[in-house]
Amino acid sequence: MNIYKTLKQKSPLITAFQGSLSLIATNVATSALPCRPHAKALFVLALLLLALPASAQNSAEVKLTYTGNRTYSLVERTNLLRYVNGKYTGLTSREVRSFISPEKDLSSSMLYEGNFYVLEETKRAGAIAAEGIHDSIPSTFTISETGELSMVKDNGYPSFRSFPTFTPENVSTGFQWKGLATRSVDPLNKGIFTKLDMLVLYTFCGKEIYKEKEVYRIKAEWQTNYGGSHIDVDGDINLTKATGSHKADILILTSTCTPLLVLDNTSETFFYKDGTQIQFKGSITLFTEFPPKVEDEKIISSLPSNIPIEKTNAGLRLSLRNLRFKPDSDELLETEYTLLDSIAKALKQVSSSQFLIEGHTARAGDASNELELSQKRARRIAKELSVRGINTSSFICRGWGSEKPIAPNDTEEGRAQNRRVEITILE
Prior knowledge:
It is built from seven helices and 19 strands.
């Protein structure tokens, strides 16, 4: 649970400004020189400004409330110099991309489902990580009106949780507050995530324009302080301590308070039981993008009429039911190729979109085998569409096994309906 602590002091900028005005007023009032008209006007202006309350000297007060309710793409990009026991080992360039869709309005919060995938490369030469079909890392969470993020299904992402959070009070330029947040880290890239608590000091810096959008700028500072009584019992048991500092600039949309851009400059060191120390220096950038709108009717009219189509929160979803694969295999029968030709032709009309491909199986045996088979079949459809001209990096694949049946499994007809692959045009 997050806490909010308003800091009642004025910002250094306001204090300095008021000090300058006091000096002007004093100099003009005590000057032995004849008081010229412009000097009198300056004297009066200084007195008037000094008489105003701080809120009037700052921007108008605003209420920061998170009201995001649409699908978005969250990108986390890190460029960090990596040192092991003091020795430079290379530049870690990592990018985590995701598509996150609202699933349910829970009154005071919104339930989201996300599909994350990771691109990472560590090397001295700055080569671009290879692109291809991406396997989804699922995540489910809620975000409250104050920005507090609570995990429902946690597989390590998103990395930053409850960041930023907003004070329940009205804010104006120079206003400061504190909030608790969490960061999920995996410094050794072992797939073991450790959660670090963050006590963040926020400063509201007013409104501006960023890429033709009205945004509020917020500055944030916090220290990394992990170890002792501040540990994650579910994290990496070999991580004993972490220290460091962070300074971040945050831009949020004035309309929904959705974070549009976060630039975090950091220096952190992680200490392990075996004596290994890993230090990172550099920047972490998070930015939000909104997928392009899709002309639904244009896509629908270009698809075979026997394909069930549904409009979902994530976008237009095509359901390829009773797809014929070889038994217990991801190899398609050649009779399905004509259908895939038609689908590829339709998807080329929205070539700039991302496509979530989800595999499903009927319940017929071991659940783990069904999950693996559904993942393979999702990837197979992505590969088949890519050879038909769709960019491979446009696909995010996910398998559900038999977890989401659409028909009873006790009949052959029902099982045939459940053996399906769904393609969602994310928007």
